[in-house]
Automatic annotation (TrEMBL):
Family: Belongs to the short-chain dehydrogenases/reductases (SDR) family.
Organism: Streptomyces longispororuber
Coiled coil spans: none
Family matches, as Pfam families: adh_short (PF00106)
Protein name: Short-chain dehydrogenase/reductase
InterPro entries to which the protein is assigned, alphabetical: NAD(P)-bd_dom_sf, Sc_DH/Rdtase_CS, SDR_fam
One Gene Ontology MF term: oxidoreductase activity
An example Gene Ontology biological process: steroid metabolic process
Amino acid sequence: MRRSVLVTGATGGVGLETALRLAHGGYDVFGTAVDKGEAALLREAAAARGVGVRTVLLDVTDPYSCEQAFGEVAAHTDGGPWALVNNAGILRMGAVEDLDDTAVHELFDVNLHGAARLTRLAVPVMRARGEGRVVNNSSLAGRVTAPLMGWYCATKAAMNAWNDALRMEVSPAGIQVVLIEADGYGSPIWDRAADALGALAHSSSPHASAYRAMIPALRAAARKPGPEPLIRALVRALTAPRPKARQLVGVKAHLSALADPLGPHRIADHLKRAAVDLGGPTRSAAVRRAAHRWCAPW
């Protein structure tokens, strides 16, 4: 029997390409979509590549939807998928004081609670089989906090802690848990973040000027090289017999993960503020360039 994989957030970007490559590699892939229109587009993309991907409607913020979607997959996979890829996620930019409860709850519900809901459904099936794999697509933001992204970083830091606890708890049952932590790459997510910043950029927020400066930077980030290294890492996490438990992806990810906990906080804070044009001008043009190159979260 082919190994089956459930990939959330599979209708675009990283999730779509990961699902298509796994299907090309012989896996029985189930990709989630939030509505029938997106599901149809996913099937069309699969057909264009000459592979088959089954689609499942899913809203990760709705417990009932999670149960229904998992039940549908279970009906075709002898109880549940061999692997779960928690890829669905959203980005909301904004200072800690500027995002309201609704925005914060949505961030945690999609980025953490949704993954937890599906994992709670999948793990008992994997345990009964004596094998399985859970791959969590996190971010460098879970290790390195950036100003004006604090709530998003909090969701990823929470996912990292949750992931590590899960890994230790289920490894005796033969279940492998893998965390992927990538740095920024070109993606439409940055354009969506720029669109959402419009209201804050013209608000009475003390950070409004920083938001206005960020919008063109986010637009430029969307045109950076795409997420090919991240896609390869996700595929490897499922195809390798013994994948690394935590995988940093990208040069900036490796350097930042090493330097951030070691450097003096005063210097790191100054560079991170300069990277998002926060807290007044930085006199040195060289410092500004270095901050934008290495300390910006995109």
